Amino acid sequence: MVKGRLIPCPERPHCVCSEYQGPNFVEPLHFTEPPQKVWERAKDVLLELGSRIEVEERGYLRAVFTTKIFRFKDDVELRMETEKSLIHIRSSSRVGYFDFGQNRKRAVKIRALFHQRRK
What is the C-alpha separation between 18 and 4, in angstroms, rounded? Predict the structure, then answer.
């Protein structure tokens, strides 16, 4: 994180982030339920999709996804902004330039599952 925000994406197509406008922008996760409840739901979604949570601090987490074929590592970060009722997301490949849209697809899938599981 940089000054309380997720790190901006480099000018490469293998990263998406909800904190900054531009070609790498994706929508954050919006919520209306209590923050602790939605945070647990977001973590459950990441685990269900096969991630390993490596770091969790108050309102922030970093998880790692490993691609099936080449075993590349992709990082997903979440940062909760309770006063705005949203969770920012960043998904990025650790290596390479192009990811065939996998990080964008992953962020969209995380958001969709997060909202499907609303109770």
Answer: 14
- Total domain count, the chain: 1
Give the domain extent around 43.
Answer: 15-116
pTM over 0.90: yes
CATH of the domain at 95: 3.30.310.80
> What are the structure tokens assigned to 66, written together?
């490993």
Give the span between the Cα atoms of 95 and 98, in whole angstroms.
Answer: 9
E strands of 7-109, at which residues? 15-17, 29-30, 52-57, 60-66, 73-81, 86-93
**Predicted confidence band of residue 4 (pLDDT cuts 50, 70, 90):** confident
Q: Please list the residues that pair with 17 across neighbouring strands.
A: 25, 90
- Can you say whether residue 99 is alpha, beta or left, with left for phi > 0 and alpha for psi between -120 and 50 degrees? alpha
Nearest-Å Rg of the Cα atoms of the chain is: 13
**pLDDT tens per residue, range 60-77:** 999 999 977 778 899 999
8 A C-beta contact, residue 111 and residue 29: yes
